[in-house]
Amino acid sequence: MAAAFEQHRAHLRGVAYRLLGSMTDADDAVQDTWLRLTSADASDIANLGGWLTTVVARVSLNMLRSRRRRPEQPVGDSWAGSGAEAPVASAASTAGAAGSADPEFEVVLADSVGLALLVVLDTLTPAERLAFVLHDMFAMPFTEVAAVLGRSTAATRQLASRARRRVHVAPSHAQAADLGRQREVAAAFLAAARGGDLSALVAVLESDATLTADAAAVPAGRPVLLRGADVVARGAVMSSGRAEYSQLALVDGAVGIVYAPAGRLQVVLALTYGDRRIAAIEVIADPDRLRRLELAVLPP
Asked: Domain 173-296: which CATH class?
């Protein structure tokens, strides 16, 4: 049984991670799934992979619902220096879980999934998130997704459709062209910030560019206003470490930047564009303001 479970471990972790946005939580869900398997009658399981996927999805759904009831609990894990430990593993899972709580490992995994996608998924209800992830990302038939949710197939389709509209915005042709220009500028800014390249940052900023930051974004706890490309660029260089773990996303319909360690949204840079340059940057970290933002994944 242990050997059979290990063959499905990577898939189960992938499902749980996309549902929960945290590797620590995902490993907890996989561990719970293993425990449920050990107490089940294996002779009654015709399709082990399907059974395990259903169980880990139900476990993850319960965790999402519990998280909603306790919103003060963090969604993800911090990256560098988090000191997070992996959950205690059984004999069947020790080898497979090795290094799962390694911050660098989670960085790679989050990047492969797409930090912006994890952030947007976290804005969905638990049912919407599960319907979208299981069907759109793992091709589970709606009949099986509906069984996990305890809803009708038609209702489950509606959940996935609603989630899909939230995740993927379909801009008009004119909007797509404008987003293309914005993406080019924002990507250049993010690349320059990651490299600490002051001159490259100045080059993508309007000469009179401004940067505002709310109190939650500043260690001193007071709002900040910076004026001028040189001053704003120096501020961006000071945040180069954060830029390394940031990605582009749609923020209220424009291309912006999200900082979300392990899928947990902490800071958003809302960008205002001038003539092929950035005219203003608004750094948002206040939790209430973050919740009110309309976020979506950038269209390809």
From this structure: alpha beta
